[in-house]
Amino acid sequence: MSQEISENTETPVVPAAEVSAENSAPAQERRGRGPRRDGRRGDRRNSRNTAPADPNAPEYLDKVVHINRCAKVVKGGRRFSFAALVVSGDGKGNVGIGYGKAKEVPDAIRKGTERAHKALRPVCLRNNTIPHEVLGTHDGGEVLLRPAAPGTGVIAGGGVRAVLEVAGVKDVLSKSLGSNNPGALVKATLDGLLKLRTLEQIRATRS
User: Fold this and answer.
1) pLDDT in the model for residue 11
2) Ordered alpha helix ranges (H), 38-88
3) Closest C-alpha to 83, from 105, 115, 114, 65
């Protein structure tokens, strides 16, 4: 029997302590700090805050939709394995789904993320919403997507919301009409996004 466990992927951000310039100058003198090799004098803590952005920062948006734990009963006891469902996108119309399995949760998430990056597919968007209404289906999952006015936001939940956010959709209305299985919902949402066509594409097919 498989059981589900929930995992919070967001870690709280701890703000750095604020140090006033009045207190930092005497502290430097007491510690005997002298001028740096380049002739400038300053606190190294200030230079940390002004460090340039990391060029190796991830360019994809990754979201863990669901983590499933499976227990296999063997002679010596139970052996646990984990499966992670991950969606990835660049926020500019490309989205992919990955499913990774491993004996540990971090390894399962890593495998799912790598597979999602390799499975990226482009979808048609219009500004911050979708061009037209569409119904996506997969197995027992059915997801209805409708375009929305600017400022509406992403009216969705669960795996549907994750797919829409990583794809770059900012204003959309959605409704789940079928199964609540996370895998079926995610794949049905992706199926609906892949069915979208712009006005130019529709004209080209009719001409």
Assistant:
1) 38
2) 44-49
3) 105
Pairing of strands 154-155, 172-176: parallel
Q: What is the pLDDT of residue 50?
A: 43
**Dihedral over alpha carbons 34, 39, 45, 48 (to 10 degrees):** -150
Record the pTM.
Answer: 0.69
Q: Which DSSP string corresponds to 117-156?
A: HHT-EE---BTTB-SS-EEEEETTEEEEEEE--TT--EE-
Q: How many Å is the Cα radius of gyration of the chain?
A: 24
- Token representation of residue 160: 């549907």
CB 114 within 8 A of CB 100: yes
pLDDT above 90 covers a percentage of the chain that reads: 60
Q: How far is CA 50 from the centre of its chain?
A: 27
DSSP label at residue 79: E
With a cut of 70, say whether residue 43 has pLDDT above it. Answer: no
Q: So what's the pLDDT on residue 141?
A: 92
Side by side, the strands of the sheet bearing 77-89 are 2-4, 61-74, 77-89, 94-102, 121-122
